[in-house]
Amino acid sequence: MATREIRLSTDEILRKVCKPVKEINQNTLTLLDDMAETMYAANGVGLAAPQVGILKRIVTIDIGDGLIELINPVVVERRGSQIDYEACLSVPGRSELVDRPEYVRVEALNRNGEKIIVEGEELMAVALCHETDHLDGVLYIDKAIPPEDVEEV
Q1: ∠5-145-8 over CA atoms, to 5°?
Q2: Which phi and psi angles does 29 have, rounded to 5°?
Q3: 61 and which of 12, 54, 68, 99 could share a cystine (Cβ 3.0–4.6 Å)?
Q4: What is the pTM of this model?
Q5: How far apart are CA 140 and CA 149, in angstroms?
Q6: What does the pLDDT read at residue 147?
């Protein structure tokens, strides 16, 4: 395992759409391991492959309940709304208010190629949306509530 460099918001790779993983091989498993190590080393709760320079649809998340690895995740259900401050390892030293679903359901593959379903509320719902957005070249700052609208929230 290795800690990889986290790309910052000015890096154009973060604005690209990632390609689906067609085959889970040793490179995929190594990337998953490295992403988890990198996420933990940076004290993050989630990390998407483009944040370490890889344009693959792979995400790691740990909000304190254990590591979740998602390959080719797809958000299949969203419910409700929650507004809270959000931050990102690729946008250091900054946080902004974002409106996210209260509940999210995601389908993906695990490292063994098995289909899994991950459901999340509150912080997990935010993490799932935040990280899957990265796979489509979207950063949380793109969805931040404009400062002039913050008082209304």
Answers
A1: 10
A2: -65, -40
A3: 68
A4: 0.94
A5: 16
A6: 75
